[in-house]
Amino acid sequence: MTSLNQDAARAAKFVGLSADTITFHGGQPLDGRIEVRGAKNFVTKAMVASLLGETPSVLRNVPDISDVRVVGGLLDVHGVKIERDVEGGVLHLDPSAVKSAHMAEINAHAGSSRIPILFCGPLLHQLGEAFIPDLGGCRIGDRPIDFHLSALRSFGAVVDKLPEGIRLTAPDGLRGTKIHLDYPSVGATEQVLLTAVRAQGATELTNAATEPEIMDLINVLQKMGAVISVDADRVIRIEGVDRLEGYDHRSLFDRNEAASWAAAALATRGDIFVGGARQPEMLTFLNVFRKAGGIFEVADDGIRFRHPGCDLKPVVIETDVHPGFMTDWQQPLVVALTQAPGVSIVHETVYEQRFGFTDALVKMGATIELHRECLGGQKCRFGQRNFIHSAVISGPTQMHGADIEVPDLRGGFSHLIAALMADGVSRVSNVGIIARGYENFLQKLKTLGADFTVES
Ligand code: EPU
Fold first, then answer.
1. Is 273 in contact with 302 (CB distance < 8 Å)?
2. Can 380 be counted among the known catalytic residues?
3. Rounded mean pLDDT of the chain?
């Protein structure tokens, strides 16, 4: 696994950032219009799905983020021919020469990405074997892969743990099966979908995740020829087919990025029109944004988010799987909540360790206390287990500039907002990580009037 700094440097290099530290002069409202393109957490999975097709696929509305480049590199070492129109956001993926890759090659391309695990099903179908390196992703908890391996075993895969990673084979092919997830994991649901579509017979997945990004993956797989139904109560049924074709698909927008810019408008007393954002996928976020005092207006081509011009209001949030409040929305919003008079509470129920980013906010003057207890209406699986997973934010507090280091993707974006909101100068290092999931974020910040210099 690569280190945090290596990841940041690599992500920065991918998107042409000359340096990894940025100096911000805070205190200006962010004002203007920016566009969001396809969802990181869908696009990367749709790229993997192209491995299953007998013919080439075309993916549209693809953002220029380093995670897309990482998955592109992984597909490339597996023999997928990729043509990319970065500006137009179009990827052509031709899997006609898919081949096995060596663990070292996979490791070299994967960096800290967790996507390689989703290659397993498609590669087992196409080649009869798959390798996965030691997996990374954001440092926001343990992030085990037990659901993935247990699902793959249930399809008939044989899993061998090697010193450098994991090797999977399917000596008798993959067969449809019944799988129940102990928790509606996004990745494990995608794993089951990508494996079941070409397994022999029917698969029933209970307690599945149903995030919009998963529904869009189901759209892609259906276009390819898969037979998938989504029933009420988190049940997904898949009838395996012998052959899948390529797809032509336009990605849904990145609702996590849209929510981040919305929170930036609220925190900096700004006014941001997020082109490409849509209401249905953001319903839960919009309710909380309104309860916190934010004002939004939904248009055909995006959503305008703005500060009310008066005091914000404290809110109580519990993160949850869809249709709940997404875990990826809490970090940027916490920055805005430091400005709301009164006490806000955030109970994180998806990841056990996702408040590391608040250390920097406290250093900048925020009053945030972290607790082991479940401070929401529901008891979650982290209660009684010593995980610090509830935050109490008391506001308003005047934030001041500081030297801070980006810990992970969403926490990193929240640090940018904090630096822009604070009085004085902040130096934010490790910003390359933000390029994993936020397209052209520095260009967008400039468009919105942010005052910063990139250290060279
Ligand atoms: N989990 C297990 N075992 C498993 C898999 C998951 O215990 O085998 C647990 C995790 O530890 C976690 C919970 O289940 O506590 C939820 O994890 P999930 O599998 O749903 O998350 P993921 O697929 O690894 C994706 C996104 C995350 C997003 C989550 C939740 C991608 C690449 N990542 O992660 O996005 O927070 O779903 O919606 O799609 C981000 O974009 O910054 C990000 C972290």
1. yes
2. no
3. 93
